[in-house]
């Protein structure tokens, strides 16, 4: 077990961020099975209950795709391509298997490209629906039961309802702790920079839940001992997107003097807002959480009668974040070739702007190769809202 | 699917009726309100056709309209309009073309934009999308469109099938997939009843589904006539003759169209008339939507003695008996079984060939049945749903089957800016040269 003694939380987050997968490799060495997954739809509660280590994959924005393009089309989401490239180059050779949740076309249409080329001992495609009505919840429960069956076969251990319920508690506690850490960013100026937060988020998704919780607690304690260093007059920015998992963009924001105080990213707030309800069948609560509480564009939301109500259903949480975190500018950063997020842009942008908050929309790659251009646009935006 | 600027000769007279069919579908949307009918924005291959037909809902097919705009090389203004409100050029251009058109029509208080291809498409009373293991725009497109037509209600259902996994028995999962699909179709019926104010006539729905089954069977019987050497019809025509199956399923007109096509193909075979004269190379169009603005490329192939007796694209049906469907008294359950089995009925075969996949197995089956010499894929840059994974299909085909010549063409479905005719023709020439060498080696 890693030393989570007082005072070293941020240093540890930095270590796990910069040496991504380090702890998973150690755990693998001690006999644990490591299961990689993509996207916020990975049902970590079930994996934890199975006794395996859920490990969320990321790419490397500083590394060019040199191998993956031979197997996967360049029209696929640049994030997915980059992670795949890292995987085929052997960066994740310590994995015992992977679960690929059906988030979008870029994932489901390349499922066989991944499974064939990585050839891991365990592979599961989790065919989650885009719709959230009651039949969809029942269907998702069936999918989870199939998934549970495959994990039982992998580990040779029965996954009991009690184990799932316990894992649900652990992950809910993990989310609560992360929300507590987010709360220190409500202060003006925030006690934790956006870049530091990004490192904690990335480190957390690479750890078993108990270690992740210990890390977060430690960081929170450390940060709360800080005193504000600036006058609290800098712009407070919220970043929205899917898996942004590198500090490059955040550095581009914060190097101008602005602070990234909140996010709605798939490794950030999207992951940590919305707990699993304790239900008599624990799989029920998990299905409801991933379909109905996780606010990602690949789940269709539109149960209300009027369009303004539907927009509140889809983006109301962003409005709340803007208010609670005193956000005065939003950067919407969408990857190229992303239909689920791309089709949201006009509605999301106008919804946020209706709160009086300016929005900068950027469409770009999962790569620092275009960072200079992005930085210029961010700087111009921040000047505008200053 | 539609006429194009230069006018593409068709090998069959029956295919020449298609522009009238497409125009008919568009004008049906424009006349619907006069006839007391509701119009629904709808998306192909969603399993919802028969529900709409049985309830007298007129489907307005965005994919068809965008295809028409592309074929007439008149899509750019709509793409630019969508882009002006931050819809990226990398998104599905069927959707962005249609949304750009909708934006223009809304800005004119519902009046048809001037010069809209073939009279344009009517403003809908509802939008019926679908979440699937197939295409994200099928649920994102109606959601995005609602931003410009906020009073138009949207329904999104789910039509899933078990994913292929050689280590998993898909037969054990089919039942809950069918249950889910049938329940989602029932939700669709409820939505349609609410918007139209009418109740579903279940006997009519059952009769419509029966007619669809007959159409599926006749479609396959007709297309299998193309196994003849020389083939009497190729993919260039099939990109047109798919219209009744794809956009008019559950109507007598669709069935009758294939009766005519069937008769014409039989006559051509009897007369020994083929598409390419002489037919030197038989190819399979193994995946990908075509560039609607460049359908003339099929003629380019034909002019070089190459034709396509078979394609995977838009062959969205199978002989019903081959699907071994369980008896279902509920027509929605029947649609659900038909949907699931349409996808899974290649799985057992794929499991028997180590390393194969259902998509590749289907291509192999067609190569064998239609005696093809080479394989052509088309990769459209704005569409991930049909075009991501093509490289893997091509490589798997070579690995598990044989080292057959393969061409992967690149372009788009609607956006002509991605297309270069000279480059495309050069690539076709090089491919046919390689094919010639391959044939010589193997003879």
Features:
heterodimer, A: 386 residues, alpha/beta, 4-stranded parallel beta sheet, 17 helices, 8 strands, B: 443 residues, globular, disordered N terminus
Describe the structure.
The complex is a heterodimer of chains A (386) and B (443). With 386 residues, chain A is an alpha/beta fold. Chain A has 17 helices and eight strands. Chain A has helices at 9-18, 22-29, 44-49, 78-88, 105-108, 111-118, 134-155, 161-183, 194-204, 209-224, 248-254, 269-272, 282-293, 307-324, 339-342, 345-353, 371-385, and strands at residues 34-37, 53-56, 97-101, 122-126, 236-240, 259-264, 329-335, 359-364. In chain A, the strands form two sheets. In chain A, strands 2-1-3-4 form a four-stranded parallel beta sheet. A four-stranded parallel beta sheet of chain A has the order 6-5-7-8, with helices on both faces. In chain A, helix 11 (248-254) runs parallel beside helix 17. Chain A is globular, with a radius of gyration of 20 Å. The radius of gyration of chain B is 21 Å and the shape is globular. The two termini of chain B are 37 Å apart. Chain B has 443 residues and is of the alpha/beta class. The model of chain B is unreliable at 1-8 (pLDDT under 50). Chain B is 51% helix and 11% strand. In chain B, strand 5 (281-287), helix 12 and strand 6 (306-311) form a beta-alpha-beta unit. Chain B is built from 19 helices and eight strands. The chains are: A alpha/beta (386), B alpha/beta (443).
């Amino acid at each position: 077990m890693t030393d989570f003694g007082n005072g070293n939380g941020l240093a540890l987050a930095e270590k796990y961020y910069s040496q991504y997968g380090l702890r998973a490799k150690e755990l693998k060495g001690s006999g644990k099975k490591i299961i990689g997954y993509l996207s916020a739809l990975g049902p970590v509660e079930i994996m934890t209950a199975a006794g395996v280590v859920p490990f969320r994959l990321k790419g490397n924005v500083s590394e060019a795709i040199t191998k993956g393009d031979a197997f996967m089309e360049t029209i696929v989401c640049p994030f997915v391509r980059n992670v795949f490239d890292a995987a085929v180059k052997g960066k994740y050779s310590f994995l015992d298997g992977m679960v690929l949740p059906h988030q979008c076309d870029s994932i489901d249409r390349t499922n066989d490209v991944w499974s064939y080329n990585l050839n891991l001992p365990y592979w599961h495609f989790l065919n989650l629906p885009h719709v959230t009505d009651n039949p969809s919840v029942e269907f998702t429960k069936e999918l989870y039961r199939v998934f549970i069956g495959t994990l039982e076969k992998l580990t040779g251990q029965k996954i009991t309802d009690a184990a799932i319920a316990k894992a649900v508690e652990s992950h809910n506690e993990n989310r609560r702790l992360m929300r507590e850490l987010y709360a220190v960013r409500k202060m003006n100026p925030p006690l934790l920079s956006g870049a530091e937060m990004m490192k904690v988020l990335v480190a957390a998704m690479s750890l078993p839940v108990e270690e992740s919780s210990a890390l977060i607690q430690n960081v929170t304690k450390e940060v709360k001992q800080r005193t504000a260093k600036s006058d609290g007059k800098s712009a407070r920015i919220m970043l929205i997107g899917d898996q942004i998992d590198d500090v490059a963009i955040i550095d581009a924001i914060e190097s101008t003097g602005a602070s990234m105080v909140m996010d709605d990213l798939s490794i950030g707030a999207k992951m940590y807002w919305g707990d699993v309800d304790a239900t008599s069948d624990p799989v029920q609560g998990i299905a409801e959480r991933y379909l109905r509480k996780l606010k990602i564009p690949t789940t269709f939301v539109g149960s209300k009668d009027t369009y303004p109500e539907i927009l509140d259903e889809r983006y109301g949480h962003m409005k709340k974040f803007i208010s609670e975190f005193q956000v005065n500018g939003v950067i919407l950063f969408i990857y190229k070739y992303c239909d689920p997020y791309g089709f949201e842009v006009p509605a999301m942008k106008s919804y946020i702007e209706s709160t009086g908050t300016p929005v900068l929309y950027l469409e770009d790659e999962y790569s620092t190769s275009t960072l200079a251009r992005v930085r210029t646009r961010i700087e111009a935006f921040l000047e505008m809202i200053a | 699917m539609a006429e194009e600027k230069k006018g593409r000769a068709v090998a069959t007279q029956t295919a020449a009726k298609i522009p009238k069919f497409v125009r008919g579908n568009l004008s049906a949307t424009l006349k619907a309100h006069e006839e007391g009918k509701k119009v629904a924005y709808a998306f192909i291959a969603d399993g919802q056709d028969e529900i709409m037909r049985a309830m007298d809902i007129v489907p307005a097919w965005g994919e068809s309209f965008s295809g028409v705009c592309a074929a007439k090389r008149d899509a750019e203004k709509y793409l630019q309009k969508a882009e002006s409100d931050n819809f990226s050029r990398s998104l599905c251009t069927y959707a962005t073309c249609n949304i750009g058109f909708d934006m223009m029509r809304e800005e004119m208080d519902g009046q048809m934009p001037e010069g809209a291809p073939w009279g344009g498409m009517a403003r809908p009373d509802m939008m019926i999308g679908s979440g699937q293991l197939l295409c994200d725009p099928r649920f994102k497109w109606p959601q995005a469109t609602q931003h410009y037509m906020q009073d138009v209600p949207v329904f999104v259902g789910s039509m899933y099938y078990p994913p292929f996994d050689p280590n998993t028995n898909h037969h054990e999962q089919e039942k809950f997939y069918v249950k889910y699909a049938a329940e989602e179709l029932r939700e669709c019926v409820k939505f349609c009843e609410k918007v139209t104010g009418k109740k579903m006539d279940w006997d009519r729905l059952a009769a419509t589904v029966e007619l669809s089954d007959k159409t599926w069977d006749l479609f396959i019987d007709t297309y299998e006539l193309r196994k003849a050497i020389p083939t009497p019809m190729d993919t260039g025509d099939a990109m047109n003759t798919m219209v009744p199956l794809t956009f008019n399923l559950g109507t007598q007109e669709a069935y009758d169209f294939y009766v005519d096509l069937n008769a014409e193909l039989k006559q051509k075979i009897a007369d020994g008339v083929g598409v390419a004269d002489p037919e030197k190379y038989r190819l399979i169009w193994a995946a990908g939507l075509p560039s609607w603005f460049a359908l003339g490329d099929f003629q380019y192939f034909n002019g070089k003695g190459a034709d396509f007796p078979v394609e995977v694209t838009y062959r969205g049906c199978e002989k019903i008996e081959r699907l071994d469907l369980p008896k279902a008294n509920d027509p929605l359950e029947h649609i659900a079984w038909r949907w699931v089995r349409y996808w899974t009925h290649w799985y057992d075969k794929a499991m028997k060939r180590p390393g194969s996949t259902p998509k590749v197995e289907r291509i192999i089956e067609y190569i064998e049945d239609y005696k093809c010499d080479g394989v052509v894929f088309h990769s459209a840059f704005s569409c991930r749903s049909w075009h991501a994974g093509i490289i893997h299909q091509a490589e798997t085909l070579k690995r598990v089957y044989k080292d057959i010549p393969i061409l992967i063409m690149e372009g788009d479905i609607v956006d002509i800016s991605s297309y270069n005719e000279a480059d495309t023709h050069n690539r076709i020439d090089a491919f046919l040269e390689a094919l010639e060498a391959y044939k010589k080696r193997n003879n």
